[in-house]
Amino acid sequence: MEATKDWFAHVGSVLASMMFVWAMFRQYFPCELREYFEKHSKRLVVFFYPYIQVTFHEFTGDRFMRSDAYLAIENYLSSRSSTEAKRLKADIVKNNNQSLVLSMDDYEEVSDEFQGVRLRWNSGKTAMKSQATAIKVRNRMRKLYTNNCSRWSHVTFQHPATFQTLAMEAEKKQEIMEDLITFSKAEDFYARIGRAWKRGYLLYGPPGTGKSTMIAAMANLLGYDLYDLELTSVRDNTELRRLLIETTSKSVIVIEDIDCSLDLTGQRRKKKEKEEEGNSTEKDPRQKLEKEERETRSSQVTLSGLLNFIDGIWSACGGERLIVFTTNHIEKLDPALIRKGRMDKHIELSYCSFEAFKVLAKNYLSIDSHDLFATVSELLRETKLTPADVAEHLMPKKFPPDVEFSLRSLIQALEVAKEEAKLKAVKEAEEKEEELTGEPGFVTLEVK
Ligand SMILES: Nc1ncnc2c1ncn2[C@@H]1O[C@H](COP(=O)(O)OP(=O)(O)OP(=O)(O)O)[C@@H](O)[C@H]1O
Ligand SMILES: [Mg+2]
Questions:
Q1: Which protein residue's CA is at the shortest distance from atom 27 of ligand 1?
Q2: Which ipTM did the prediction report?
């Protein structure tokens, strides 16, 4: 009796030590190393184990469909399970008269014989490897959707832009990145405050300042899909609503050049036009009809339709979504569209600063400094060249790049731009003078 007690105490302490070592192993060894050990320990077991093992997974494929084979096995084993297994799972199957179906619970075993071959059916569970799942989500093929003939069609989204390669002030860049990351992690917060999990960005600035590039960088940072919504091809508000409902969670919905793609001030302009029409003497019904036809042919998406979508539709669709509008002319947009809450963050992308230039120099020429940087810095302060223009000059013409040649080419372009800006200023001043005096005037401008 004493010996048995000792034996149990001994086994107990060995088991405890093993559990402790296993816990330490799980805690301190990286996932990959653990997987390596598990794989090789399984190989060792297989070496001594005489049976062949076949695994049927309950869910298959990317879409996590329930496997037909698994269901068939569950049905096949149903009667045997209820007699052999100690723990059973119960479920109601909806056929003509609802019936209770029993199947074996996880980690139960049922033996079977098929054409003289002995079989053992075991049920088990694979723990969801959250880390691996996160990596899978991040690395999954992301999609770029475009609306075409009232439907979304997609291609693989593979834009290489990142915030790291985006030319803009580091502080501003950091702020935007933090804003995006905070948003992507704020599901509970949005639920708690009772707001739909969405955030609106308005990117504005002259052409070639990186608006589209930033959108790609945003999608890459968060691992989201991109929906590039071409509003001019959307027939009406109903179609707009349908397209938006079809968007999936974890996506960026982009409407580029919002001022051009939609007559957002249409309501007001139409009113004004009507007033003018009322005053005008010309009332040709045929011309009127043609005008009406022209109007019907173009998109019937209205500002209110768009605003309704921004405010309302999101609540109905689960998951996070970013909506990004871009424009070259922020002043043309209706204030209703860009008020806070609809467009939460307004981001100005502007002409190339010296800090932005340094990012481009690093990207294109792999340099952090150069003797010519001081000249570039001074010229950039006096000119308005977009990052796209600067990038064009920094683009190496051969490999390895001729750094000096590229920088001199940029300096030359900056000097030309500076000269043009001066001439423009003179011309504008002359025109102003002419307006004031009514006579052609001239202005002298002292140039250093
Ligand atoms: N801030 C930037 N950082 C890095 N590259 C930039 C930046 N701005 C422009 N570029 C370069 O210039 C090209 C044009 O930029 P992009 O299409 O993003 O400009 P945009 O602001 O969207 O212009 P548009 O208003 O005409 O649509 C890009 O392919 C990119 O190579
Ligand atoms: Mg663009």
A1: 207
A2: 0.99
